[in-house]
Amino acid sequence: MKINAWCWAAVLLLTACDKAPAPQESFAGLGSEAADFAQVVPGKVFSFPEDHGPHPGFRIEWWYVTANLKDAQGHVFGVQWTLFRNALKAGPVHAGWRDSTIWLGHAAVTSATRHYAAER
């Protein structure tokens, strides 16, 4: 009787085993090949103010604004704003809804006792 129970337990355990699931596609295609995008290389010369804006040939870039502020009562605040640009595919940039770029914005304001954040 005991051997029968062990056999059934072994059968149940073995039938519950399965191959590992296939890896999921990366978020928004970011796991795809990056070979078609411009590569970051040493010695790149930047030209401002033109290079403050987006560079469509690159896959990912982001911009930061940070500040330390003080109000009229002397309370200090930290402010941070970030804008991320992620291209889903290399090639020409299209206007409107046909654009294959994902944009994400994040903002935060902190004080000594509070933290506020939002992202879209």
Automatic annotation (TrEMBL):
What the entry lists under InterPro entries is as follows:
AttH-like_dom_sf, AttH_dom
Q: Which domain of life is it from?
A: Bacteria
Give all residue intervals belonging to the AttH domain: 60-120
Q: Which Pfam families match?
A: CrtC (PF07143)
- Entries under PROSITE patterns matching the protein: PROKAR_LIPOPROTEIN (PS51257)
The name this protein goes by in its record: Iron ABC transporter permease
Species annotation:
Pseudomonas edaphica
